[in-house]
């Protein structure tokens, strides 16, 4: 059964619980989703990010931005906002906080081991920053997202795709937070160059040290997701491309390592040169480290959409990112389709089970449907089970939905997914329903 977004719809932010059974069948169970909040058309939830308190699995924090899919481009940007949601009862109930950022995008949240929390995103403060939304802004919370400091830390302009990770286990840097972004600037010839921008906080997000910028070549280097190993080593990933002829047929994916808290980084290690598109239009990759105490501890997993309109491919590394098991494993829908948009999010639970959450928009614009799928690997990424639908497929039914589909065909480039101490995965996504229906 499908659910559509009609002209009088409510876009619900939903969270599902995914559990696995460690038996011969190695099955995945998907619970009935819980509604977090609702927005009315033309406002839509996009790119929810989800975090769990490392010391309290009942304490969840989410960040999301709300697009405005109606009117001119200037009107849509002026009405775009970010919000956080916090739950202290395993996600059964939530409280909301709206941030005063205009044209806010790319929300990220984290909870520290001592209970503090931060929200990072891009946007502009009314009356302060110029009319661009590439300002990296961070809000601090002393109580895990229940309340937020009135004044944010404004790190600067010229950023894209902030990604946030907190060290919750290493002996020497536990509680440190790192934000990576793509930072662009003009060189001496006036050409645009870009690199991986890394900034850290050592006090729970109240202040940040001077940044480190890694520009390994003269190409466009787009920062992707970071990860932390058990000894505190920071892993940052990026994908490069040529923006001037001759263009690369494929983009290359890399990781860099820092063993001194982000002050300096290693030379890049190649992850893959045959995934990450194009075509179709590039969307983000995913990176995660196994934080379990088992034999797969510190194994890295990287996922990206295969070039030529292929499936999502996951590769892994058991030597801290030095070598990877190319060509990897295809997960989710495996058809070659340049008109289908596919993005993914990864998480690993305390038993070393790798979960992959995949959003796919089938077909181009016209008669397009969006589906959300989950699959898991019980053998450290060597194989993945068949994808299971998390939510009924959603199809276009209105002009507003067509605008939303063009702007955010898969409801963003990432989704909130994390694992809890009992081994379950929690996933957050936007669910679009008719106003007359509840669940």
Task: Explain briefly what this protein structure is.
By secondary structure, the protein is mainly beta. It contains two helices and 30 strands. Helices cover 3% and strands 49% of the residues.
Report on the structure:
By secondary structure, this protein is mostly beta strands. The chain has helices spanning 73-78, 399-407; strands at 3-5, 9-20, 28-30, 34-40, 43-53, 56-68, 81-87, 95-99, 102-111, 117-124, 135-141, 153-156, 159-166, 177-186, 192-201, 212-214, 220-228, 234-241, 252-258, 269-272, 286-289, 300-305, 312-317, 329-331, 341-348, 354-362, 369-377, 388-396, 416-419, 425-434. It has a domain at 1-32 and 311-432. The chain is globular and about 50 Å long. 53% of the residues are buried.
Would you report the number of β strands? 30
Strand order of the largest sheet: 1-28-27-26-25
Give a quick account of the main beta sheet: strands, pairing sense, barrel closure. 5 strands, mixed
Oligomeric state of the chains present here: single chain
Radius of gyration, taken over Cα atoms and rounded to an integer in Å: 20 Å
Number of helices: 2
Q: Beta-sheet strand percentage? A: over 45%
Distance between the termini: 14 Å
Label the overall shape. Answer: globular
Mean pLDDT: 86
Helix content: under 10%
**Structural class, from secondary structure content?**
mainly beta
Unreliable parts = 1-10, 434-439
